Amino acid sequence: MGKYQTVKPFPLVCGPLAVPFLINKPGSGHRVKGELYSVSGRALARLDELEGISIGNYERLPIEVVVADGESDGGDAAVDVEAYFAHRRYGEEMWAKNGWVGMEEYSDSDGEKYVRVKDRDVGLNLGDYIRLYLQS
């Protein structure tokens, strides 16, 4: 649907494996920019599986966004959507681990550092990497 940004500031950080984590701390961080997609119910269920909703990697929560700066004619209203946030079990700790400093968006250069699943240790899942990252 295009480039959008959050109405309120939120922390966005890179965690282990250069995976991005949006932290549910409204009022902290930046107004985060990202891409907005419209998906079917079936696709949403698959995304939930990919993001590890059932195992506590992420949570899908409501958030308010507007068309990103420079992408609009200026008259766009806020839209209620959902986004994947770091699970509440570790989100704030991830924010602290990053020195309470976040990004405005997950850039192409950030994405180049991302470690694909096929290149990760076979015996570890994302939850394991998160625990190890927070303990280091």
| Coarse structural class | alpha+beta
Q: Look at the structure and name the CATH superfamily.
A: Gamma-glutamyl cyclotransferase-like
Strand coverage percent: 15-25%
The major pleated sheet works out as:
4 strands, antiparallel
Helix percentage? 10-25%
**What is the CATH fold-level name?**
Hypothetical upf0131 protein ytfp
List segments where confidence is low: pLDDT < 50 over at least 5 consecutive residues: none
Question: If you compute it from the alpha carbons, what radius of gyration comes out, rounded to the nearest whole angstrom?
Answer: 15 Å
* CATH class categorisation: Alpha Beta
| Name of the CATH architecture | Roll
The number of helices is 4
- 3D shape: globular
**Order of strands, widest sheet:** 4-1-5-6
Number of domains: 1
Describe the structure.
The protein is an alpha+beta fold and 136 residues long. The chain contains four helices and six strands, in the order E-E-E-E-H-E-E-H-H-H. The chain has helices spanning 41-50, 91-97, 108-112, 126-135; strands at residues 2-6, 12-14, 20-22, 33-36, 58-67, 79-86. The strands form two sheets. The protein has a four-stranded antiparallel sheet, with no helix packed on it. A hairpin with a 5-residue loop joins strand 2 and strand 3 (20-22). The termini are far apart. The model has no long low-confidence stretch (mean pLDDT 91). It comes from Opuntia streptacantha (Prickly pear cactus).
